[in-house]
Structures are given as C-alpha cells and as structure tokens.
Design brief:
The complex is a heterodimer of chains A (305) and B (262). Chain A has 305 residues and is mainly alpha-helical. Chain A is built from 15 helices and no strands. Chain A has a domain of 213 residues: ABC transporter involved in vitamin B12 uptake, BtuC (Orthogonal Bundle). In chain A, helix 2 runs parallel beside helix 8, helix 4 runs antiparallel to helix 5 and helix 12 runs parallel beside helix 14. Chain A is globular, with a radius of gyration of 21 Å. Chain B is built from ten helices and twelve strands. In chain B, helix 5 packs across helix 6. The N and C termini of chain B lie far apart (45 Å). Classes of the chains: A mainly alpha (305), B alpha/beta (262). At the A-B interface, helix 9, helix 10 and helix 13 of A face helix 4 of B.
Chain lengths: 305, 262
C-alpha cells in the first residue's frame, strides 16, 4: 500500500480512522499524565495499576456478563484504585518499602487476573467477549462509540489537570512545602493518582495491560529531554504520545498481521531513543561531543606553555 | 514582657515504636533568632515538622502566637532541607520562588504580575535576581539554598522555620544567609534554624534550643549554651577546647575543630 493511499484511509476508512483517533487520544492523555507520574517517581505505580486492571476487567464480565467496553473499563478503574490503595496501605502499615509493595501488588493482582481469565475463558459466552484482548490490546476492536467515550473521559482528565495545575505542580515538586502552605496534600495526591488510573484505563483496550505503562513513562522521558519547563514537558509528552499512537496505527494497518498496541509502543520507544541521543542540551551525543572538545582544548593548552 | 511567637508544649512524636521527641517544651519569644541544636537523630527536623503539622504528634501541641498552626499558617514560612526535593525538576528559579505565594493565592488562581514582582524582589534580596530564568538544576548548592530562602521570604511571614539552611553551602552564601537572618530579626520576625555547627551558635544566634529527644535546655545563648548543657545534649561525644570552643567527635575520633588553626 502506498503512502498516499494510507493517508486517504486515515480519513476515510472507518476502521483505520477509529483506531488512529483512539490511539491519538490514549497517547495525549497517558503522555500528559505520565509526565506527572514520572516526575513524582511513580513510573512503576503506573505499571502496577495497569497490570492490576486485569482482574477488574474479568470480574466485571463475570458479574454482568456484559460485553460493553464501559463495563470492562469500570472494572479496570475499580481494580486500579484497589491496587493503589493496597500499595499505600502496605507501605504505611508494614516495614515493606514501596518498591517491594509495588512488585507484590502487581504480581498478586496480575496473577489473580490470569487465573480468573483462564476460568472465564471456559465459559461459553466469554470467548466472544474477547477478554484476552486486554492482555496485549486489540485496537481493531475499537468502535466509534468507544472512541467517543475515550475522548470524553480523557477531556475530563486533562481538564482537571489544567484546573489544578498550580496545585499539582507544587505537590509534585515539594509536597511537604505544599502541606505547610495549607494544601490538603493527601487529597491532591489521591486526585492526581486517580487521573493516572483513568489515563491507564483509557489505553487498555488499545495497548493492553502488559504494555500500558510504556505509554505513561516513554513520552515523558522523551519530552523531559527537550525542555526545562513543566508546561512544555507535559504538552510535548502528550504530543509525543499522540504521534506514536497515530504512527503505530498507520504502520500496523499498512503491514499485515502486525498488532497495533506493540507497534505504538515501538514508535514511542524510537522517539525516546532519538530524544536521549539528540536532544539539544541533554542529548548523549552532544554531551559526548562537548566533553571531547573540552578535553582537546585542555590538552592543547597544556602543550603550548 | 515580650510575647511568645512559637510555643511547644509537652510534644511527643514517635515513628513506629521509636520515640523521636519525648515530652518536649519550647518557647521562642517574638523576635528571637534561635538555633535548634542536637546530635543526629535528636529530633530537630521532626520538631520543625511537628510545629508545621507535617507529622502528627502522639501528645502535646505547638502554638504560633497562642493559636494552633492550622489557624496561623499565613504567619509561618518553611524552608525545608535542600535535599528534600528533586532539583532536576523542570522549572525555573523564578517559578520556585513564586510558589511561596501559592498559599496566599488560594485554590485555582494562577500567579500573575504581582507574584512575579514579589518573587523578583525576594531574589534580589538573596542576590539571585540574575538567575531568575535559570533551570534550578543548574544551580550550585549555595544557590539552591538561596532560592529556598527567597521562596520563604515572599511568604512575608512572621515566623520562619528553617531546616539546615547552612547545609553544604559555601562561605559566601553562609555569610549572606546570616545577614538575611539578622535582617529578619531586626524587622521583629522570629526565626528558628536547625543548625549543626556548634562553634557559630554564639556568633549567629541569640537563642538556642538544645535537643536530644528530650529538651535539654532552651533560652538565651549566653545563659544556656554551657558546657554542662552541651555534655547533656551530646553525651560524651564532644570535645572542649579553651572552655568555649566546641567540636563534635565523629566516629569516635576527637576532632579539635574549635578554632581554625593557621
């Protein structure tokens, strides 16, 4: 398929248009909120939440026997929340450090989810429900109504982030100081984490629970390389996420039998690689070149007394 | 009689089962420049955090001008330890200083021209106005500390609580900070400073709180900063020279760092 045909399809082919739009929305929302998660050193929390969503999805199906994506997403939301609360409870009440608590919750929830999934797959109506698509995502199953739901929820999440911008910035940079100024740090923390859960849930159908955390961490890591301003970083992160989403959708539609989710993740990984190497001030390549130049200057200065 | 700016009554704080502060009383009169000294693990930072309501005490209370912190927080500015934040955070010096106005701004309102002006003024006071647009990660330790001080200054508070503002700063910055603290005192503000360098206590401060989980002494430096009190605060781990110079023993070695020997 040639490029022109591909772009034609992007606007006029129902499936491709839906998938690309969905991927773009998931990229913007997870990129923007992922930036906060990365700055708060909560990259792994995103991973734990997305893995923990699996049992929520299966339980939601077992309880309702409904195939509506909204039902699955509500289940994912509840389980993601439960995982977050479990991690907080473990670190607060025991001597287990937060990285171990994350690991524990991730594996327990995910393992439980896999077990439930195997059980549910044996039921006659479960196979058509396509529960297993949430493991690695299946963008082709996106419907226009799903995309509208994603856009609505995503807009709400981004709107809330903009509304509480100053508060979130302060919380992320210096939580103790925020508390000393009288801001309810616990409530803000819960709010921002809830938005993170929402961002994850939006992406599950497309990217899947296993790879979703890449969509939180990678755009933010790439964006951080290009700027020293939070505003620009969050914007760029969303842009990179969307770019990867649309490119992933296009590439996987152009090549037969390539899954969209993993291709999107590969696209964002390529963006990260380029950013790490070539971003102007922080790029590894330029830094190395500067070092070499400095070394040469020092050496010549020594040779000419 | 002067009024009491900061009063701590019977304050007890424990992390898990380990008491960090045990029934501590403290009074800082209005206009005092007070050092809080004590060995590592004495509870100095915890005392500051308990006054600010950042840690919950098991018992006791802290009052600012006679009322709980919750009602008086507009009177208080906090300078946390420099190491408590990530200095690679993507933001500028000016942005960090403007955060000092966030408390007065309240919910949802964005900082504007007035906040910008106040921040630049504070940066000028700490000699950092040329660095306003700099990314905070590109600053030296002393410069970072000055940014934190500027952030507290824009709060325009009556009481300043500072956690180790001299930690890891160069001699120039230390002198600049001391001048600033003394200026605050001359404006009638009350300043409490967690401090490590015992030799400079008599020179920089007029009040001192000597703490080692329990309160050892609290009062004017001239009256309470004495050898017996220092021994009681630091246990045997202290070396005295010439009766007034003091040095801490590190890892069991006597370090005679009372007066610089040239």
């Amino acid at each position: 398929m040639d490029i022109g045909q591909l772009f034609h399809n992007l606007f006029f082919d129902y499936t491709l248009r839906t998938v690309a739009l969905g991927a773009a929305i998931l990229g913007v929302v997870s990129g923007a909120l992922g930036a906060f998660a990365v700055l708060r050193r909560q990259s792994l929390l995103g991973d734990a939440i997305s893995h923990a969503a699996l049992p929520g999805i299966v339980i939601a199906f077992l309880l309702t026997r409904s195939r509506e994506p909204v039902v699955f997403l509500l289940g994912a939301l509840a389980a993601g929340w439960a995982a977050t609360l479990s991690i907080a409870a473990i670190t607060r009440t025991t001597r287990i450090k937060d990285d171990s608590a994350l690991g524990l919750v991730l594996s327990v929830f995910f393992g439980f989810g896999l077990m439930l999934l195997t059980f549910a797959q044996k039921l006659s109506d479960a196979r058509q429900a396509g529960l297993d698509k949430f493991l690695f995502g299946q963008a082709a199953t996106l419907l226009q109504s799903d995309v509208i739901a994603m856009a609505t929820v995503g807009a709400l999440a981004l709107g809330t982030t903009l509304l509480f911008w100053k508060e979130f910035k302060l919380l992320t940079f210096d939580a103790d100081y925020a508390a000393s100024l009288g801001y309810p740090v616990r409530t803000l923390d819960i709010l921002l984490t809830t938005l993170l859960v929402v961002a994850i849930v939006i992406g599950l159908q497309t990217v899947g629970v296993v790879l979703m955390s890449a969509m939180l961490v990678a755009p933010a890591a790439a964006a951080r390389q290009w700027t020293n301003r939070l505003e620009t970083m969050v914007g760029l992160s969303g842009l990179f996420g969307a770019l990867a989403g649309v490119s992933g959708a296009l590439i996987s539609s152009a090549m037969e039998k390539t899954p969209t989710g993993p291709v999107i993740v590969l696209c964002i990984s390529a963006l990260v690689l380029v950013s790490l190497l070539f971003a102007p001030a922080r790029g590894v390549v330029w830094r190395r070149l500067r070092d070499l130049r400095n070394q040469r200057r020092v050496r010549t200065a020594h040779l000419q007394p | 009689m002067t009024t009491t700016a900061v009063e701590v009554r019977d304050l007890t704080v424990a992390y898990k089962d380990k008491p960090v502060l045990w029934s501590v009383d403290m009074q800082a009169p209005s206009g005092a420049l007070m050092a809080i000294v004590g060995p590592n693990g004495a509870g100095k930072t915890t005392l500051i955090k308990a006054i600010l309501g950042l840690v919950r005490p098991l018992a006791g209370q802290a009052l600012i001008y006679g009322k709980p912190y919750l009602k008086q927080r507009h009177l208080v500015a906090y300078v946390p330890q420099r190491s408590s934040v990530d200095w690679d955070f993507p933001t500028s010096v000016l942005d960090v200083v403007m955060m000092g106005r966030y408390g007065a701004l309240g919910w949802l309102k964005r900082p504007g021209a007035a906040e910008r002006r106040a921040a630049l003024e504070a940066l000028d006071k700490v000699g950092m106005v040329d660095f306003a647009e700099r990314q905070i990660g590109q600053l030296s330790g002393g410069q970072q500390q000055r940014v934190f001080l500027a952030r507290a200054l824009v709060q325009n508070a009556e009481v300043y609580l500072m956690d180790e503002p001299f930690q890891g700063v160069d001699a120039t910055t230390e002198r600049a900070i001391v001048r600033l603290l003394q200026e605050l005192r001359s404006q009638g503000k009350t300043v409490l400073v967690v401090h490590h360098d015992l030799q400079t206590v008599p020179e920089y401060f007029d009040w001192v709180m000597m703490l080692n989980v329990r309160r050892i002494a609290c009062g004017p430096v001239r009256e309470v900063f004495t050898e017996p009190n220092l021994r009681a605060t630091y246990g045997g781990k202290i070396a005295f020279l010439n009766g007034n110079g003091v040095g801490e023993i590190q890892d069991g070695y006597r370090t005679a760092l009372s007066q610089p020997v040239l």
